[in-house]
Amino acid sequence: MSAAMDTESTYSGYSHYSGHSKKAHRQGRDRHKSPRSKDGSRSEKSVTIQTPPAEPLLGNDASRAEEGQDDNWGETTTAITGTSEHSISQEDIARISKDLEDSVGLDCKRYLGLTVAAVLGLLVFLTPIAFILLPQILWRDDLEPCGTVCEGLFISVAFKLLILLIGTWALFFRQPKADLPRVFVFRALLLVLIFLFVFSYWLFYGVRILDSKDTNYQGIVQYAVSLVDALLFIHYLAIVLLELRQLQPMFTLKVVRSTDGESRYYSLGHLSIQRAALVVLENYYRDFTVYNPALLTASKSRAAKHMAGLKVYNVDGNNASGQSRAMIAAAARRRDSSHNELYYEEADHERRVRKRRARLVVAVEEAFTHIKRLQAEEQQKAPGEMMDPREAAQAIFPSMARALQKYLRTTRQQQYHSMESILQHLSFCITNNMTPKAFLERYLNPGPTLQYDRDRWFSKQWTLVSEEAVTSALQDGVVFVLKCLDFSLVVNVKKIPFIKLSEEFIDPKSHKFVLRLQSETSV
């Protein structure tokens, strides 16, 4: 309990500072204020970031992420509280209501498809059994006796139905991974084929067996066996169409994220556009680094700063054209020097990242060294006095929390790591006797989206945009877009070229050489 209180006090101490430093910071800011701020023509920049529900470890103060910070920002920053971080407009309400309506429609469509498939599957499995039982129930006394061959057919029907049941369960009864906008064409065709097939068998059975009350019971059983055999062949056809057809790669898909340009390549077989989009999204959560809009804030602010011109105020009405030309020339010179500013900004940012990374590595190594020393001491204590991994993580977390806090703020990853998630990861590393390098791997390099909690994802619901029908097959040159709320994935399809290989025969005798030595030697 004391370790947890120390952790909370240490963590909360990073966001509160003395009244003297706050007052000095406000006085310094007031002294450097421009006179333009009085008339409202130039106000301070404010950024509001909507955060996930979980409390982040490092706060959400956008001013901490600006490039003008020095290395001692933690001692001079003023924490301002009391403002709201969440806002909603009429457009947001309309969008939320539309999403709810779409989700209700998708749920109805999904459950309707599952209901139809379940009813049809039940009909398929009960039909052969009904073919065999109905004559026994309706005209049992008139039937011919069932001989040895007929009884052997019962065993054949039973085992074939069991094999069909297992194969159907393995192929069709899977938890759906996504809700597609259109039906799966091959699956729908198979359902229609099965329905027509079973309906035709029932029609023939009703006309030729039920109406005439056929007494040849062995022929009736063979008729049921032929139905089961045909259903097994349809199941093989379903395996070919649904599983085997798409295994051979035929197309290469280039996936580009619209915001930062990160791209990946994937090879796919014969699939429809909507199923190819589903494969792309499954690989996106695994291969692409998590989307971080905070990394784009610096570039956008820099571009806005360079694009903003200087304002010209014509008070007397004289020499306005000369001032305009002078200001245009000054703006042109400013744009010419923008690449130097970008170079020095990136160099300074990289220097601060390397510096705080080194501090973090040293702090974590010292904390893990302390854990090893604690483990050696705990082995000498009674079993009731030993600490569990959670308590050990809370004990060493304050020693590394400040360095980790600064590093995540500098690299703009603070919204993805809450205090609770870091403590859980630390206790997991302690439980499994992992090294400090293994603990830091999650924070030093941004990981894929699956590495983080679902509440931290910026992409949960996607919209497929395509000029072609989403049920059509992939073709060379097809482009479709997967859109979410904050960014989109642009997918370009290219067909794998036809490769022609030729063989060249090399005679083994051609590898023989002759070494000629000169009899004369140099003296």
TrEMBL record:
The keyword Nucleus does not apply. Its main location: membrane. The lineage of its organism: Eukaryota, Metazoa, Chordata, Craniata, Vertebrata. The keyword Transmembrane applies. Residues 36-45 have a biased composition (Basic and acidic residues). It is found in: Cell membrane. Belongs to the Vang family. This is VANG1 protein. Residues 19-35 have a biased composition (Basic residues). The gene is Vangl1. GO terms for cellular component: plasma membrane.
